[in-house]
Design goal:
Elements: E1 18-24, H1 33-49, E2 55-60, E3 63-68, H2 75-82, E4 88-97, H3 101-111, H4 113-118, E5 121-128, H5 137-151, E6 156-157, E7 164-170, E8 175-178, E9 182-183, E10 195-199, H6 205-215, E11 219-226, H7 233-250, E12 253-259, H8 261-270, H9 276-295, E13 300-301, H10 314-321, E14 328-329, H11 337-347, H12 350-353, H13 360-363, H14 375-382, H15 387-396, E15 399-403
Parallel strand pairs: 5-6, 5-7, 10-11, 10-13, 11-12, 13-14
Antiparallel strand pairs: 1-3, 1-4, 2-3, 4-8, 4-9, 7-8, 12-15
Helix pairs in contact: 3-5, 6-7, 6-11, 8-9, 9-10, 9-15
The protein binds adenosine-5'-triphosphate and magnesium ion (MG).
């Protein structure tokens, strides 16, 4: 237990002398959403911190405080994990000290030494929630600023655009000192934006599309269509790996692996080759919608980008959309490949996405795919199929893989 803390039977003080402060996105904090936003963010933070030790998490004035409750908490692991938590725009580690102006200055000098040495200009901002503290916030900022100015002669005060802002907070149990926050993941807490089923292939685009939806607060479950033996177990492993790579953002993920071979063989046997891809995609949408109904999801997500390939023209999308009633979100629809790749690199999926395992679509790609299909010709081609039978059988054969955070 930190030696600075007052004893209070209602509040267990943090263990050790470092805590984390998470700054929440401000736009959404306005209005009635605020409480729901905070609760969701804290719940998500609690779940992901379980494996790093025991933490106390609570919110005050649009800051969420994360306080270790024992000395064996893995602080580096926890901090890294929180930097991938959607809904947080910035996060800092803060150092606790005794609630005296002298101790605060001493802590700022040592704890923020590197930041202060690197900066040329600085400013001190103080907050005082303990009203029994002898100095006002302004007096405290002036005192700390003056002392730091003396101790670091290269620094000059700048109230408008300082290189570093030294934050001082005098709170119930201790004073805290922190500086330059690390950028957070941004977005909204996962779960705030409802739940959707994301169609995850082994490519570059769908992991990025999934990440973008999760960033807007959508809880996801994944569907992957697997065409064994046309595609190898390695291809499936690759998709599971992609899903695993995005769990630090999405949280625990369930991947529904759908056996797709029979449908593809049936299409090859009974339908015009030029329509394969579109017919296949219509089956994917039907099956995904079925999965969505089962799990209570209200939307579908794909990694389609307008004009990228034959099946991603507007007409083709219209034809694939026509089999489902749920909204289909295509967050990368207006992005160039380069832009998508930039995000894929940032979130760490790119290297896995470009591994050379074949995808179920590439195996059955027609030589001359139809780019401007009409609904009539598609429906005519499907008329010979037992659509319901094929869909139900695929859904019944789903294998669920749960990937923990
Ligand atoms: P990606 O890079 O995401 O694979 P792509 O550019 O290769 O996309 P398509 O193969 O036409 O494009 O697939 C379009 C979208 O359809 C994918 O982004 C994905 O959402 C979905 N999809 C394609 N194949 C599969 C599959 N085997 N399992 C699940 N979803 C798939
Ligand atoms: Mg693909």
């Amino acid at each position: 237990m930190g030696k600075y803390y007052n004893k209070n039977k209602d509040h267990v003080p943090p263990a050790g002398e470092e805590i984390f402060l998470l700054k929440m996105g401000e736009m959404v904090l306005k209005g009635l959403n605020r409480r729901g936003f905070e609760e969701r963010l804290m719940g998500n933070a609690r779940r992901r911190l379980q494996k790093y030790g025991k933490f106390r998490i609570y919110s005050r004035q649009s800051i969420t405080y994360v306080e270790p409750q024992s000395l064996d908490c893995d602080l580096d692991g926890a901090f890294q994990s929180l930097s991938q938590l959607f809904g947080v725009v910035g996060l800092s580690r803060a150092k606790a000290c005794e609630k005296t102006p002298e101790a605060i200055v001493e802590t700022a000098k040592t704890y923020l030494y590197d930041d202060l040495m690197e900066a040329r200009t600085f400013k001190v901002e103080s907050k005082r929630s303990d009203k029994s503290f002898p100095l006002s916030s302004i007096q405290l900022s002036q005192y700390v600023g003056g002392e730091l100015d003396d101790a670091f002669p290269h620094l000059t005060a700048d109230m408008h655009t300082p290189d570093v802002v030294v934050h001082v907070e005098v709170r119930e149990f201790a004073a805290y000192v922190h500086a330059n926050p690390t950028p957070g993941a941004g977005g909204l807490p996962v779960g705030m934006g409802g739940k959707a089923v994301s169609l995850l292939s082994g490519g570059i685009d769908s992991p990025v599309a999934s990440w973008m939806m999760a960033k807007r607060g959508v809880a996801l479950e994944m569907v992957h269509f697997f065409s064994y033996p046309y595609t190898s177990p390695e291809a499936k492993e690759k998709v599971l790996e992609l899903a695993r790579l995005i769990t630090p953002w999405c949280g625990r993920l369930t991947v529904h692996v759908v056996p797709f071979t029979e449908i593809q063989e049936e299409l090859r046997r009974s339908c015009p080759e030029a329509l394969f891809t579109l017919l296949m995609r219509r089956f994917m949408m039907r099956i995904s919608e079925r999965v969505a109904q089962r799990i209570g999801a209200h939307g579908l997500v794909t990694g389609e980008s307008l004009g990228q390939v034959a099946s991603q023209t507007m007409d083709a999308m219209a034809v694939t959309n026509q089999v489902c009633t749920l909204p289909v979100f295509r967050p990368v629809v207006g992005m160039d490949k380069e832009e998508i790749i930039r995000i894929a690199r940032k979130i760490g999926t790119f290297e896995t996405s470009i591994l050379p395992y074949e995808d179920c679509c590439t195996v059955f790609t027609p030589r001359h795919p139809k780019t401007h299909p009409t609904l009539e010709e598609i429906q005519e081609a499907e008329a010979v199929l037992d659509i319901e039978g094929l869909v139900s059988k695929a859904v019944d054969g789903i294998e669920r893989v749960v990937l923990e955070l």
